[in-house]
Amino acid sequence: LCYQDRWVCVNKPAGMSTHRSGGNRSNQFVVSTLLKRQLSRKVFPVHRLDHRTSGALLFAFDSEMCASLHDALREQSARKTYVCLVRGFWDNFFESDTATVDKALTVDGTKRSATTVFTKLASTIILNNSAYGEKNVPISCSLILAVPTTGRTHQIRRHASAMGMPVLGDTQHGETKVNRWWRQKRGLDRLALHCLSLNL
């Protein structure tokens, strides 16, 4: 996406880890390893995206720049914008195009404050007489932007689920029968969450 002297921003595919971890012993699907080979230089991940999330991912070429960019991302002025496809027709849940979810999330056994601002881009209804195994239930979905002002684990996914509009393809915080329908009928075999941009 962008290459500079001391850092690079890449578009991480869904299903690929940011860096090698205990749960991923293979280097085959690790962004940091593939990037190091491609650029023939050492890279330092500034932040991470969940394995199933795609989108903008920032790497530095030295530890000093990595620390500097990491600190910049922690500043209140920094902004990460995600786009996601969620279950439900937005206007059935909210009167305006923007909704803020301010709900504490438990991280490592401790409740921590968390806030995400969601903005509707589009909503649609797909008429189907046997949606999700139920008769006369229309299928609806909304395309929305999500801007987290805090950085908790699975924050966007958990907040989307909390407002009754889980991210499609989310096997942890979504609904199995809904995900199955979208996978079988529409070919959605991934988490519908993408990091669209980073502003420092």
UniProtKB/TrEMBL annotation:
Residues 7-162 form the Pseudouridine synthase RsuA/RluA-like domain. One of its GO terms (molecular function) is pseudouridine synthase activity. GO terms for biological process: enzyme-directed rRNA pseudouridine synthesis. It comes from the Eukaryota. InterPro entries: PsdUridine_synth_cat_dom_sf, PsdUridine_synth_RluA-like_CS, PsdUridine_synth_RsuA/RluA, RluA_PseudoU_synthase. Belongs to the pseudouridine synthase RluA family. This is Pseudouridine synthase RsuA/RluA-like domain-containing protein.
